[in-house]
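Section 5.1 Outputs to date
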Amino acid sequence: MADGLAVMWDDAKKTFEQMTGKKKPKESKGIFNAFGSYTGLSGALEKFDKAEDAANKTNTEKSSDLKAGNKLVDEMETQLGNYKKASASYTSVLGKEIGKEINERTEADVKTAYERALKYLNKVLASVQATGESRVAATRQRFNTAEKDLTAKEKMLLNWQNNVKAALARAAAAAGKVKASPTVATYNSIFPKAARDVTMQLVLAKDLDGFLMDPKVILQSMGPWGRQDGQEPATLPDDATQQDVVKNLVGFVKELKKAQQLVATKNAYSL
């Protein structure tokens, strides 16, 4: 699948290697070995994608179709569970590598490019999991007799919590990519998509209740990063400086934190 979870992870590995260059044996041993298929990460994601692809091609008219579809969603859940276990182990590997980098800093508050790249991988792991959970829920809706005939918008509203968490996790990973490689090319590779994934969920949030703040306010303030007219801050000119990249990224992260808080506090005081 072109947009499969395995592709997300594979792209992150390639990006990591491009960011860090040819890794020294001392640095790369744990990380490189964890890229191997035997860890279960890539294998579980490939099986998840295969089940999702088959489910999307399954009809929903007959009861036998629904039964077959739900069986495929069960397989998606099983493989996502396998990924979570492998991800937890790999997160431990990353944590140890990050700890080494922190201990070896020449200045306490100055992070190395390698450390930032490691943290980027951590964010990708989380975004893959959140996206998987969102896709499981959405695919399950196709074979749920009570939900399969709802409109697309009605389905998205029912699955909003999963979808928005996935969008926020992907946006956080995208921001982590720019932090690790603060170039114009990297910045322009993530926007406006990173912002539009989130703003689409904020548009839907206007039809939901239980928020402690108005989603429309965050939608408006984050909007500039999702514009598609080729203008700043969604797209930076080729002659923009690293300082421009950092300044605009900091602005986006500020808005992203507002959206994360919006989601975290939804229904916080409901009875």
